Every structure is written in C-alpha cells, then in structure tokens.
Amino acid sequence: MITDSKSFTVSIAPRENILPILVDYNISQITPYLYVTAEDTAREFSKVFSHGIGCVINVAQELPQIMFPPQTGIESFKYPIIDTPTFPASHYFDVVADRIAVNTASNRRTLLYCRQGRSRSITFILAYLIKHHHLPLQTAYSLVKSRRQIAQPNVGFWSQLRSYEVTQQKMTASINGYPQNPITYGGQVFNKLSNGLDSIIAQVPMVNTFTNMMGPISENTQIGPYHNGRQRRRSVYSHPQDIGHRARILQRPNF
Q1: In the annotation, is 55 catalytic?
Q2: Which domains does the chain have, with CATH numbers?
Q3: Which helix (H) or strand (E) holds 30?
Q4: pTM
Q5: Residues 112, 114, 125, 151: which is the catalytic one?
Q6: DSSP-derived pairing of the beta strands 2-3 and 8-11
Q7: What is the pLDDT of residues 108-122, one digit of tens each?
C-alpha cells in the first residue's frame, strides 16, 4: 500500500496485469443533503458527526451494517447489493432514491457508502438524481464525477441506469403532459362532458322525486312530469263507487 495523502490511498496489486486502485477516503458532498464515502470512513463516527449526517445507508452486501448510538439520532439502513454487472441493482433503485428524497425533504443529510464509494454508492446516487432531480444520466454522472473523481459504476449497473433513465423520463412526460393531452380517451370524455354540460342540464328535468312522492302539495306547487303521471294513475279513485273506499284508506290509523 502506498499512501500519497491522508485522504487517498493507492493499492498496488500483486500481479502486473491488474491496474492499481485509487481509494478516496474523503466524505464527498454531492448535494447539500447527500454525501458518499468508503466503508472505513463511514465507521469513523467523529467524521460522520462533523458533517451533520442524520442517515447512513450501506449498499454493500458483504459489509456489516453500522449501528450508531441511539442518542445520536442517526438512522442506519442496509441493502444487500453485490458489485457484479449481472446483479439486479435496479430492483433497489426506487427504495433507496425515495429514502434519500424523504431525508432531504426533512432537511436530514444522508451518507451512502460501500466498499470504496466508487461503484455501488455512486449507482444509487445517480438513480436518485435521475428520479428526483430529473437529470439525464450523463448530466448526473458529470455532476457526481466532478465531486468524487473515482466515481465509476460497473458496466452492468450503468446499463441498468440507462434503462431507469428512460423509464423515469416516460413517467415524467406522462405526468406533465396528461392535463394538456386531448388525445387520451379519458381526456376526450372529460372534454365532451364539460362542453356539453349546459345542454344536458337543459334537457333533463330537475325533479325531486322523493319530495313529489312524500311531501304535501299546495296550490302554488309547480307540478313536474312525474307528478302529473302519478296524478293520472290516481284517477281510479275519482269514480263515485271508489270514493268511500278511498276515505276508509285515509282514515286508517298510523302505527
């Protein structure tokens, strides 16, 4: 191991055909409420406290979860991500991105870490920037790269991020364009109902059926079509032979 500063370490591989690995032990700030670092730094409580971190997220399957003293109020989460191109990291994109967004909305700072703060942590930071900041993948990566030089998701994660970018762009376009989209079936129905509402109301008699059936009718009451029809059906009691029968019905006591 050759250390060239307090924050960077170059690991020399035993075989010549393997490139040396640069590890950044800084806590890198990506947004005002989002940070990333390597595992060793995440375990240095004093550095975590000094940055005002309120939530620590471990995205490395092989690393044990860091638990902070309860009095610190720091939450700790772990998601079992394996740093291989074939691992389905995209299954966790939404849950991690939404966790960061909730913390940000509450003015809580989030620290992501994996083994080196290079691939897995960066992948989920990019997913967050794509979903909640609506940044194109390449723009998000340029931003992260400018603040953490070693940032480099593996090729499989990058491919998954590209698919995620397309999905999020379609969702955003659908949400933003729906109120102004007259082509959708729902939009057509809504427009027809709205535009023809006045004519529909003008053609339908607004009659309170319950009132006509149960309420007393005075001389000044305006009789609607339904009531006129009911009155015609009552005409059977207008014959002299039925008047007595009708009177007996009206005199029955109510229980």
Answers
A1: no
A2: 2-177 (3.90.190.10), 207-255 (no CATH)
A3: strand 28-31
A4: 0.65
A5: 114
A6: antiparallel
A7: 999 999 999 999 999
